[in-house]
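Comment thread on ticket #2218

A.B. wrote:
> Attaching the input chain for the structure job we discussed in standup.
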Amino acid sequence: MLIKKYKNKNENIKKKKNVYTYKKLFLIISIVIIISIVLYILLFSISGLNVVKAQLIIEEGIIEIKHEDNSWFIPENGTLLCEYDKIRTHENSSAIIILFESSIIRLDSNTEVMIKEVIEDIESTNVKILQSTGRTWNTISKISGIDNYDVQTPTTVASVRGTTFVVKVESNGSTEVGVNHGLVNVSSLKNGIIKNTISVEENESVTIFFDKTDQPLDKKPFLKDDWVQSNIDKDNKDFLEIKKDLYNRLEPYIPELKEKYNVTDEELDILIEGYIRGDFELPDNTPDWILDIIELS
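C.D. wrote:
> Ran it. Output below, let me know if you need it in another format.
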C-alpha cells in the first residue's frame, strides 16, 4: 500500500514536470518565432538585407590596415573591411572589428589579425580570423547569424558557435585561449595539421606552447586581468542595451504571451536573455521540427 502510494505520487510529480516542460518548450517557440519576425521586419526589410559584414572602429592610438598585397595605411574610423584585409594596432592602441553588426572582436595593443574568410550563403555563415600576434577579445553572438567562427594562430585553432573568449598569441606563436562564456573547441597545430583537441568551458583556459604542439592539452583556471575585466564590463553594458532594445521591439506582444502561457516577468526575462545569448536549454525529447524552427530563427 505504501509502495503504491509513493508510486502514484511519483507519477503525479512526473506528469506535472512534463506539463511544465512542454509549457516552457512552447513558450520558447512562441518567443523565438515572434522575435524572429520582429527582427526580420524591423531590421532586415528596412535595410534591404544589406548587412555590413565587417567594419573597423578605432578606439585609440594608431591603427593600420593592409589590403592583400598593398601597403599598410592608416584608415578612417568606420572603414568597411573585406576578406584578406589585415589589421594591426600599435603600442597603446586599440580597435574593434564589428561582424554582421552585432558580433565583436576587440584588438589589444600590438595585435595583428587578418580576416581570412567571411562566407555567407543560404545554409550557413562562416568567419575565420588569422591572428599572428597580440590579444583579442571575441564576443560572437548567435543573433548575428554566424554559424561557425574560427580563430587560427600559428599553433592553435579555436572554434565556436556563440560565445565569449580571449586569444593571446606570443611572439613565438605560443597561444593561450581563455573562455568567459560558453564553450570553445581548441586544437593544437603542427605544420598546419591538427594534433590534439580539447573543449574549454566557461572560466577555463588552455595554453599551446610553440614547441609542444603534439603533446596532450591541459586546462587550467582562466585568470582575468584588468584588460579582460574591462571587456567583460563592456560586454555587459552592450548586452543590456541589446536587451532593452529587444524589449522595446517586443512590447506589443508581451501581454499576450504572459496571458496565454501564464508566464512571469522573471521567466520571460530568462527566455529573452537566453535568446540573445543563444543558450536555451531544451528537453532531450524536443521534436526535430521545433529544433528546426529555432535553428532557422
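A.B. wrote:
> Thanks. Noting for the ticket: Residues 1-20, 43-49 have pLDDT under 50 and may be disordered.
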